[in-house]
Design goal:
- By secondary structure, this protein is of the alpha+beta class.
- It has twelve helices and 28 strands.
- It has helices at residues 7-10, 13-34, 42-53, 104-109, 256-263, 332-345, 436-440, 463-468, 485-491, 495-503, 599-611, 632-639, and strands at residues 57-64, 73-82, 91-101, 116-128, 155-167, 172-181, 185-194, 197-205, 216-225, 228-237, 244-253, 273-282, 285-295, 298-309, 312-323, 363-371, 382-392, 395-405, 409-417, 424-435, 446-459, 471-484, 509-522, 525-535, 538-547, 552-561, 573-577, 582-586.
- Strand 6 (172-181) and strand 7 form a beta hairpin.
- Helix 9 (485-491) runs antiparallel to helix 10.
- The radius of gyration is 39 Å and the shape is elongated.
- The chain starts with 6 loop residues before the first helix and ends with a helix.
- Residues 615-641 are annotated as: Disordered.
- One of its GO terms (biological process) is regulation of protein targeting to membrane.
- Residues 291-529 form the AsmA domain.
- The chain crosses the membrane at residues 17-40.
Length: 641
């Protein structure tokens, strides 16, 4: 007889019945799932797929090949997905028969991940418009969500597969075949056009016939055309798992823009490219372990990481260029447009580089660059360049910039703020250790050590436009140099001294005590602050203005000699023209009437007439103070502050 504390008495009969019922129910559900008639899901599948693709979907039949299995082979017959209205008429996808091994629980929850796929009679018409809407991605208004699940296929068979691809964004229009079997593996062969040029596309992959889903899967692909030849060879972590892959890419073509049509990285038009890169792709991130090659006559070596974090793209790159030509960053059409603009408005010195970053989107990052040798058509005082480019929410900064010159260097920073409709450009650059004879290019005329400052803030979509309305300061100073003695007499308006020096030692030099060419900039107009050149025999000071919008010069230089000249040049020096084609004349005002003297001959005549008392004075003229009056040290410090 059972006592009150036996286990049997502590577990009532009703509880036992309840537990047994639950176990039976669970077993029944499991058995029902294992034998679930998937044909009942045909209507549900059609409705869900129709909503997903925004087009009618019909399924001839949906069945399973085994009566009892948790991972049955599901068979679809006569599947048809029509093209969405925006993509045109006809069908997006037609399949005569397709089967896949799926978990029945995944099928019932709508989260199916096939482990094997067998397709017969595939016909697919892929379409993407210029805005990036694609029929394979579903409805254009559908929010994209990056998938985190990698394919886990262990078998792929495709028989009698055909496809067409009309990709307006990639400028690719091709048609061909796609097959997959145990003998030849995955094979894609197509022909058509790329960016208007005849093109062929081929791709190959190792047979997928029961290998481990995590094993490395070799693949190769090639797009060949007259404007771009792009090849990729590598492996993925499992068949078709392009979210985890390592590959080598080579690209030869007429421009980086052609490559960008394929990879869509925001690249621009350039000269011919010949590049090779070793690349890894993990999830949403890209790792460029090594990139080298040429763009035009520029040679580059680089590495970079491109990470996707919190909806933003973050770039960390290092670029080393043994030699670089900035003209290589424009294609032939861009260079032709620049030449046409130059012919229309005249040659300019300030670069017309675009600085509008409003379309950069959610991209941040840093690029460390070093150019060992700058190539500039026609020659340049600049020899090398290095610095750090940082981009943060459409604010671009060039920091720690160092540009080596033939002698000396330029250092400083540049900032472009594109957070508002009109970008703001600001910069502060300093020149140290440079030589006048190098910058001016006339060592027989003037020599000396140069220091400089460029501090400008302006608004515009290009550097030229920002300088054209910019405000700030531009100053260059020189000391401990020398100047051609005859030119120094002209600077001091000592015509007699200049003529005597020309008749004697024309190459003689005189000490340059200081040269301060400083300007205050306001709304693109530069005014002397001050303009002063002092030598051992003369001094000249300037007034007038320089217009950065057009790069026009309108300065007048008046001078004084250390000794009273026997024959004084009565007219001042006038500096005119443009930055690229300056002119120096000796003339008071434009000549009026017949017989009026012009240029240097007229000025000499007026000067002789004035010396002989034959010419009436036009009134008191501004003259520069004597050379000894210049406090060069103080003026230099003020100019460079």
């Amino acid at each position: 007889m059972a006592t009150a504390d036996t286990p049997r008495s502590r577990f009532p009969k009703k509880a036992k019945i309840a537990v047994g019922a639950i176990v039976i129910a669970i077993v029944a559900v499991v058995l029902a799932a294992a034998a679930f008639p998937v044909g009942l899901l045909k209507g549900v599948a059609e409705r869900r797929l129709s909503a997903e693709f925004g087009a009618p979907v019909t399924i001839g039949a949906l069945s399973r090949t085994s009566i009892f299995s948790f991972t049955p082979e599901i068979v679809v017959n006569d599947l048809r997905i029509a093209q969405p209205a925006w993509a045109g008429k006809g069908d997006f996808l037609k399949i005569v028969r397709a089967s896949a091994h799926l978990s029945i629980f995944d099928v019932m929850t709508g989260n199916a991940h096939p482990r094997s796929i067998n397709v017969t009679g595939l016909d697919v018409a892929l379409v993407r418009d210029a805005k990036g809407n694609s029929n394979w991605a579903g409805r254009p208004d559908k929010k994209s969500s990056p998938g985190n699940d990698a394919p886990s296929l262990d078998r792929l068979l495709i028989d009698k597969g055909r496809f067409t691809l009309r990709d307006a964004k990639r400028r690719l229009d091709i048609a061909g075949t796609i097959t997959a079997n145990g003998a030849t593996g995955l094979a894609v062969d197509a022909a058509g056009s790329f960016d208007g040029a005849p093109a062929r596309l081929t791709a190959r992959g190792k047979p997928v016939t029961g290998q481990g889903t995590s094993d490395a899967w070799p693949f190769s692909a090639n797009l060949a055309s007259a404007v771009l030849d792009l090849t990729a060879t590598g492996t993925t972590a499992g068949p078709l798992n392009f979210r985890d892959m390592t590959m080598k890419m080579t690209a030869r073509g007429t421009s980086l823009k052609k490559l960008d049509h394929v990879i869509e990285a925001g690249l621009f038009g350039t000269q011919d490219i010949d590049l090779a890169g070793w690349v890894r792709h993990v999830g949403e991130d890209w790792f460029i372990d090594r990139l080298n090659g040429t763009i035009g006559r520029s040679r580059i070596n680089a590495k970079a990481t491109v990470l996707k974090r919190d909806g933003r793209t973050k770039i960390d790159a290092t670029i080393d260029a043994p030699q670089f030509d900035f003209d290589d960053l424009a294609d032939d059409a861009g260079l032709a447009a620049a030449r046409a603009k130059e012919a229309r408005i005249g040659k300019r010195v300030i670069p017309d580089t675009r600085i509008d970053l409003s379309r950069m989107g959610p991209t941040d990052g840093i690029i460390r660059f070093s150019i060992a040798r700058l190539l500039v058509e026609g020659g340049s005082a600049f020899r090398s360049l290095k610095g750090n480019l940082t981009l943060d929410h459409r604010v671009l900064k060039l920091e720690n910039a160092v540009a080596k010159l033939d002698s000396g260097r330029m250092t400083g920073w540049v900032k472009v703020d594109s957070t508002k409709p009109m970008p703001t450009f600001s910069t502060e650059l300093r020149v140290e250790g440079a030589l006048l004879e190098t910058l001016v290019g006339q060592p027989d005329m003037i020599r000396g050590a140069v220091q400089g400052l460029v501090r400008i803030t302006g608004h515009g979509t290009t550097i030229r436009e920002a300088f054209g309305n910019g405000s700030g300061k531009i100053a260059f100073t020189a000391s401990r140099g020398s100047m051609n003695r005859a030119a120094a007499f002209v600077l001091g308006q000592d015509l007699g001294g200049a003529i005597g020096q020309k008749l004697g030692d024309d190459d003689a030099m005189t000490p340059l005590t200081c040269a301060i060419i400083a300007f205050d900039a306001k709304n693109g107009v530069l005014r002397p602050a001050p303009f002063l050149i002092a030598t051992a025999v003369s001094r000249g000071s300037g007034r007038g203005q320089i217009n950065l919008d057009g790069e026009t010069v309108a300065l007048t230089v008046v001078g004084a000699s250390k000794d009273k000249p026997v024959l004084k040049l009565v007219d001042p020096l006038r500096v005119g023209g443009t930055f690229s084609a300056p002119s120096i004349t000796v003339e008071s005002q434009p000549a009026k009437g017949k017989g009026s003297g012009k240029g240097i001959i007229g000025s000499i005549g007026r000067s002789i007439g004035s010396a002989l008392g034959l010419r009436k004075s036009d009134g008191k003229k501004a003259e520069a103070p004597p050379p000894s009056a210049a406090n060069c040290k103080a003026l230099t410090q003020a100019a460079l502050r």
